[in-house]
# Entry
Amino acid sequence: MASTYIHNGVLIDGRGGAPIPDAAVLVEDNRIRAAGAVTGVPRPAGDVTLLDAQGGYILPGFIDTHVHVMTEGIDVIKDMQTPFSMRFYNAMNHLRRTLEAGLTSVRDAGGADAGVKRAVETGVIAGPRLQISISALTITGGHGDGWMLSGGEYEMFPAYPGMPDGKADGLDEVRKKVREMLRAGADIIKIHATGGVLSPTDHPEFTQYSPEELEVIVREAAYRRGIKVMAHAQGAEGVKNAVRAGIHSIEHGIYLDDEAIELMLEHGTFLVPTLLAPLAVVEIGEEGGMPDYGLRKAREVMEIHNDSIARAHKAGVKIAMGTDAGVMPHGTNLREMGLMVNIGMTPMEAIVATTRVAAECLGWQDRVGTVEAGKLADIVIARQDPLADIRSLERLENIAVVMQDGKVVKDRR
Ligand SMILES: [Zn+2]
# Structure
């Protein structure tokens, strides 16, 4: 048995309580055996690797509940000219950068297949542990339908063996499509309940799947050991349809009204804000790497989005950190925490949203999300105090150590 003793750090364990100065964490194999004040976690006798936190901050590995590991940037012309298999090689780089930024688990919201997940699980490539959705279900002409007015098609995640095409209309088709995604290895079903920013022929406020279609999708997924459904949902009507149908998490939530917020509280629905997404579209768009329709819609929604998430937070909706990484460069995920603080969350609330609550959103609260005895040893050591400056977490040089599953995968001490 391999033991590691992390000491000389301040513990912020992800549960939201006061930081514990002079803390220690004992890791045995891939699990946390004990964590807390050093007096309660003595260094064991015998063969143990010491890991000096050097007065830094010991945190749970961070979790992003909305990423697209198979893509980066939205450049239609460039993507059309890139050999198909390059996406897999590029993804190796995306995954490594995500891990080195301190994210030890992610939920892929479309594009990653069972092979990518297995490559990480078996150690073929380095990356955060993955929950995958394969490809998102979308209506014809909806967000996710790559048909262009030219008659050409640009699919961000084209179909191939193991990656069914997501387009499905009507009760029979959506039922079959859910089954196809599950057959391909989906851990969660992703659907587009409304239009979006980066789709050529719709608008974020357009309602897409009907309540009846949503119910069939949720029910069909639930038959398989309770598989959950995450919904890209931006307009208020689409959000409400999704929540009423029993959707597990609302992604983006740009136009939440009071009734939508009430419904989310009532159903215990998670909200994944992705505040970084429209901001990144605007930033990247100004450099010319974004289609015009995306840039225009992102500018239109940014302020509305911030206000919507602020009201949901105030009302007490469960917020799990998610970014839409892939729209922005992988590894910049923790910028989202600064944006969460901008809309009124405390730094501690932003940390809990990116650790414990994000783990709950993934259904992985029994294994990750906090630094507690029994959890998998996914641990980050940051040099600076994130409670004093939440934005310190977005600086890669500040993420001194990343441990995943008990193994140090980054050490910049
Ligand atoms: Zn997304």
The mean pLDDT is 95. Residues 3-60+369-411 form a domain with the Urease, subunit C; domain 1 fold (CATH 2.30.40.10). The chain is about 30% helix and 20% strand. The longest strand covers residues 3-11.
